Protein: Beta-lactamase
Organism: Ureibacillus massiliensis 4400831 = CIP 108448 = CCUG 49529
Amino acid sequence: MNIHKIVLPTPFPVGDVNVFLVKGEALTLFDAGPKTTEAYETLKTGIRAAGYEMKDIDQVILTHQHPDHAGWIDAFPKANILAHEYVDHWLRQKPEFLEYRDQFYQYHMIRQAVPERYIEKMLQIRGELELLGTTPLTHFIQDGDEMPGHPGLKAHYTPGHAQSHLIFVDEKTNTAIGGDLLLETISSNPLIEPPIDLSMDRPKTLLQYHQSLTLLKDLNVSKLYTGHGNEIENVNELIDFRIKRDHKRAKQAYDILSEPKTVYEVTQKLYASLYKSELGLTLSKTIGELDYLEQEGLVKVELVGDVLIYSRT
Ligand SMILES: [Zn+2]
């Protein structure tokens, strides 16, 4: 793969994001950074440093819909924009979708026994969407598709961190563009998001995420270009490490369940120093661990009124 990495600043706690310019029969930008002035200038400079201009980009392909990756699709009005179909809901930001999204989060936070004042606050956080592009997709990518202009570069659907998440594997070199599926120094969070079919069913994101990591392991990728930080060469070793750490965290959640508890109560104990400032993130992580314990038959869940109560089996 003829690949050129460009590192863009983001205003998010995660820090910089990587985007990749790949020259094949087409000139393709993988991911596009957040829609900030700083990221735009850095992107333009980076594309020039690789010997091209913004207008030379034929297509932008997105790994997933998060705003640190999907902002500056708006900078390429003539390019094709390709991603998983789910991304389109977030780019179009139709009032019906935004309302559905709020209802989805509200419904689940009530079940998790999140105090009402926090639910209100969480629903008001719309800031993230402002840094997301609004150019609709021109093409939807499905699992197994070959990328136009890049023979042998195939998409693999890898949900968990995001419901739209794709990685792109070059079958000739066994290298891959991995988005946020696996990162060198930080763990990717299995964020709770509305499901692909836009029902109220909650995807079990940690279980999805581990399945996606297992798929990546089976692909035996020799070099992974990541969304944040350095490239990874010991891919399979790092996958084992990440899964083991999640299971350790699940054991802690199990210990906390010596008495039946709500998701919110488990989160308060499991992430005592973090849950107040990072409620969405820590709830997602807790739910992931509880889903895992439930799948293992160690924990059961029961609906009492509007609230889910988790207890040991
Ligand atoms: Zn990211």
In short: The pocket of zinc ion is lined by residues 14, 17, 66, 68-69, 180, 227-228 (CB under 6 Å).
